[in-house]
Amino acid sequence: MSKLKIAIQKSGRLSEKSLDLLKDCGIKLWNGDLQLKAEAHNFPVEMLFLRDDDIPHYVEQGVADVGILGENEVWEKDKNVAILKKLGFANCKLSLAIPKDEVYNGLAYFENKRIATSYPRILQSFFKKKGIDVSIEEIGGSVEIATGIGLADAVFDIVSTGNTLIMNGLKEADVVAKSEAVLISNRSLDSDKHAILDKLLFRLQAVLSASKNKYILLNAPDSAIPEICKILPGMKSPTILPLAKENWSSLHSVVREDAFWDVIDQLKTLGAQGILIIPIEKMVI
Ligand code: ATP
Ligand code: MG
Question: By C-alpha distance, which of 72, 82, 80, 85 is closest to 12?
Answer without folding.
Answer: 72
